Amino acid sequence: MKNFENNSCLIDTGTASLISEAENVLPSNSPSESVPVPIQTQGSASSITTPGRTPTTAPPTTPAAATPDPNREILTTPAVRKLAADNKVDLVLVPGTGKGGRITKDDLLNFMSSVSPNEPVPKVQQEQVVIQEPPIATIPTAHFWNSSPTSQLIGSTPTQQEDTVVEIKGIAKVMVRTMTAAQKVPRFTYHDEYSMDNIVQLKQLMKKLGKEHKTKLTFMPLLIKAASQALTEFPMINAHVNADCTAVTYKAAHNIGIATDTPHGLMVPNIKNVQNLSILDIASELERLKTLSENNKLSTDDVTGGTFSLSNVGAVGGTYASPMLVVPEVCIGAFGKIQTRPAFNSDGEVYPSNTMCVSWSGDHRVLDGATVARYSNTLKRYLEDPNLLLFHLK
Q1: Is-contact 227 282, C-beta < 8 A?
Q2: How many other β-carbons are positioned within 10 Å of the β-carbon of residue 311?
Q3: How high is the mean pLDDT of the chain?
Q4: Which of 106, 211, 235, 330 makes an SS bond possible with 363, Cβ 3.0 to 4.6 Å?
Q5: What's phi and psi for 12, nearest 5 deg?
Q6: Considering only CA atoms, which of 174, 168, 166 is closest in space to residue 298?
Q7: What's the rounded Cα separation, in Å, for the pair 309 and 40?
Q8: Are 25 and 56 in contact (CB under 8 A)?
Q9: How far is the C-alpha of 267 from the C-alpha of 303, rounded, in Å?
Q10: Which residues are part of the catalytic machinery?
Q11: pLDDT, tens digit, for every residue of 44-54?
Q12: What's the rounded Cα separation, in Å, for the pair 390 and 290?
């Protein structure tokens, strides 16, 4: 690249032909002579001036004579770009006379008129850059916990994946039948939040007693017992409805089903006669049913005869839910996870409170929302004041 001074104008290699033409018309001078050579770019004629001589004008050059820079930024308007596209003109070849080298409509028209009609519009030869991609690391088809060298292949060809057809049978088939029947029942949902501060404290005290009896004591035995106590005041919640919905049977026994997530699928075994069991008895029965569920060894008696169901969605991190009924039962509840949230006491002061979200679904053919709301409020009182629950226990 050569630098020439003319109002601080810098000429790059794209206008090298203009400089060459200017040198051809310069007079011969000795090396010691300094000849200012002002050169006007953008396709206009070059003016050469020497001391004591009349300025000489170099022959004009056409835009096509200049070597275009394929990497320069094209400044123009959308209308000019469209006109160039319609005429298949590469704007990189068009010199711009506007501000900052902007290409005007006149620049484009002048360039098009300078090209012979039969002469194809030249195109800028751009250097092709080939990017070589690194080899793709394929995911091994073996289990991710297999640490053998063959399971860690890098750059190998992935195997063809195929669809897998799994037959619905066993517990999954039972769930299809149960949920299909539940979907036919018009149901409603009701949600609320319970304060669990006192139950959390009671659970910590009873946890020590559970260890003495070698029984794991969680929140669920307390919730199940409180739910059973509330059912004694709302017998229509603990009920069955017949297939054609012509009769409702209020069940004397509180056989409370517990929705259980197992490796074999969803199971709802039930604890029989909860109204006659202690909290410790309920905890022991929960452990028994859980073990049998995980090993797929539940008996027919364990999974039949339920009158009311509960689901602990909080065990998997859930809060609210819309549980499906276990037909012919008429109500089911879902307990969310216990969370610490800000609350206000009677003096308006903020304090951390343990709260639990509760969701209910009811058969709207035989239950109304007000009945389920009143049942929920009764259970809420028992859980927020465990002393009240103990007072009513038989």
Answers
A1: no
A2: 24
A3: 78
A4: 330
A5: -95, -175
A6: 174
A7: 91
A8: yes
A9: 8
A10: 364, 368
A11: 444 444 444 44
A12: 27
Q: Using one digit for the tens of pLDDT, what is the confidence trace for 85-94?
A: 888 888 888 8
* Amino acid letter, 101: G
Rounded CA gap, 46 and 18, in Å? 8
Contact 203, 209 (CB under 8 A): no
The closest alpha carbon to 351, from 201, 194, 197, belongs to: 197
Q: Which of 238, 265, 258 is nearest to 249 (CA)?
A: 238
Burial 364-383 (b: 16+ CB within 10 A, else e): eebbeeebbeebbebbbebb
Considering only 144-153, 185-194, 224-233, which range has the smallest mean pLDDT? 144-153
The answer to whether the CB of 222 falls within 8 A of the CB of 279 is yes
Pure H helices in 213-265: 219-231
Alpha-carbon span 225 to 60, nearest angstrom = 102
Residues 6+ apart with CB under 8 A from 73: none
Q: Is the pLDDT of residue 312 over 70?
A: yes
- Tokens, residue 222: 């307390």
Q: What's the Rg (C-alpha) of the chain?
A: 43
CA distances (Å), origin 39, targets 16, 281, 326: 12, 103, 93
Choose among 40, 57, 49: nearest CA to 95.
Answer: 40
CA–CA distance, 55 with 283 (Å, rounded to integer): 110
Q: Under a CB-based contact definition with an 8 Å cutoff, are residues 69 and 12 in contact?
A: yes
Q: Which residues, 6+ apart, have CB-to-CB distance to 345 below 8 Å?
A: 351
Overall average pLDDT of the 344-367 stretch: 96
pLDDT at residue 343 in the model: 93
Q: What integer pLDDT is reported at residue 122 of this predicted model?
A: 55
Distance in angstroms (rounded) separating the CA atoms of residues 127 and 347: 77
The Cα–Cα gap between 272 and 288 comes to 13
